[in-house]
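REQUEST ID: PR-0412
SUBMITTED BY: lab tech R.K.
PRIORITY: routine
TASK: structure prediction, single protein chain
INPUT:
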Amino acid sequence: MTLKKRMAVFLAAGAAALTAILFMSRFDNKYTMSGPLTQDGALVISASVLEEGPVWAPYGWELFPGILLEPGSEAAGLPVYVGQVQTWAVFHEDSSPYGQASFRLMLEGPEEPETVSLWLPEVFSACRVYVNGALAGRSGELSPNYRPLARDLTVSFPLSGRTEVVIQAENWSHYYSGMTYPPAVGTPQAVAELTAGRTALYALMTFSALAVALYSLAAWQGRDMGEQTHLWLAGMTLSFALRISYPLRLLHGVRLIGLTYALEDGAAMAGIWCALGLALELGRMEGPWAKGVRRLAFAMIPLAAAVPVWVLPQVPALTPAYGIWMSLWRLASALALVAAALRGGLLARTAWPAAGTAVYAVSLFWSVVSINRFEPARGAWPDEWGGYVLVLCFSALMVSRSLAMSRENRRLNERLQEEVERQTGQIAGLVGERQELLSEFLHDLKSPLSSLISYARLVRENDVLLDGRTRIQLEVILGKSEEMARQLRMMQQFNSDNPIASQWERLDLTRFTAAFYQKFQPDVEVSGPDFRLELPQEPCMVRADPEKLSRALQNLLFNAVSFTPEEGEIVLRLRKEGAYARLSVRDTGPGLDPAVQDQVFQRGVTTRGGEGGEGLGLFIVQSVAREHGGRAEVRSRRGKGAEFSILLPTL
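STATUS: complete
OUTPUT:
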């Protein structure tokens, strides 16, 4: 995608975001969805209005700064709408947002009493709610035992005719003051559905962002940890999840208000820092400008967390300046993010960063210019939607990059496999040629050696008149010749084994062992011992060469036949042990000495004494087991028989 097309995507995404925000401003805005007012300013809550759903109440309020108004008072307050006065600093010479104030709203209800619920989103930072002079609910405690509590408050009461609602508020904890978010009035069921829908929306956004954060951390740890893009994405999504989870925290209330809002504001700034870091990383921008932006964005994290908690309570006059500075910083960071993401999109050959930052920039801009004129009725705030879209777009970018890397890895693995097969074929051919040459040499050497042994035996058996010295020399010649013949047989057997030419396949050991038992059962039982088979019920899959495995198992089986008396027993058993399959042959022979057990699989070690054993069979068994990625083992006690096993890794 060219830069021109990417710019077109950026503009289209920005236009779509602006259209969506304008749509929300008209159809999901508490200020445009308010209930009707009477001529004297009372909010009309009729039965027909309640049937349509909750009624928003941003207008018709009176504000009484500096006092806790007694219910039923005839005093007149300042006419305001909710959100018009977000801080009480305007009423104090020192611009302090702290103090007390009261809000009053008159409701015009139906003639017949009807139970309604009043939903108050997060009053800063403690309040009492009176309905017709009766205490209907509270959040926290007012002075003299001031205890703030951050939560959404719902109170229910019977509504009929003219009804007075008074909210006494007190704040010594936050730079916002009193009631800043318009409440809603409706039937208990309608208000419950409203709050449940809002909670579900924010839960979806929170936990999906957390899922992306966990995926990004896993991807970062699974790759070169010097590559920071997944780490930046994890930080951005985690910060967004912490920032967006406030409705979930407000369900049960939060008393540590200072720490909670420090965390929330710090998470918002951390999200911007990570978003900028991710965009700059994708754009490979490492100059002084990029470093300065990163440092400034990082410095805003402790600033946003510390100023509201420790600075503003000491210097409340800085409250308006702090709000202006945060708004300007959001706009500036949005512009920087746009520039970096466009650059990153150019190098990444994708429009995801451009589209996401366009939406985010528009949402940040709108959140600044629409203060006191827009608040979502059922959805999220524009900057929250913008942040969520940004998370999704950067997540899509990371997923597309991961898929591209996966495809490239698969292609490289296929090429590597082809190269390995080609090289293996060449090596196998070379080994085959050498095996053939060695086989011919051994065959040519074996013929004269066999003749020499035959003539020596003929001389000895015909009892030719030989003196004692010559007869001793003849026995030496015959012994050495037979030893050389055994060595030649061993070399021929080794030469017939070619590990490179192994025929590997997926093998069901259960079926393989059963077939092996049926094949050799007559040979074993004709020697005298009983021959039993023990198998698991389920298949046992391994990767093996059936011919080599059968040869190794034959060595174990006929070794057992050699050492087991006619009245004894031989058991062929297969069982699973963790990640391995154990294929064993157990006999009731004389067993092995402990000193021999550690050496029995070494080449040349035999326990047959003077019977002429070459010490090769068990060595071959161990070689085959290791070639299959396993090992051979022996368990034995002198006089109690022996159990030889081949352990193979299962699939």
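NOTES: The radius of gyration is 43 Å.
REVIEWED BY: pending
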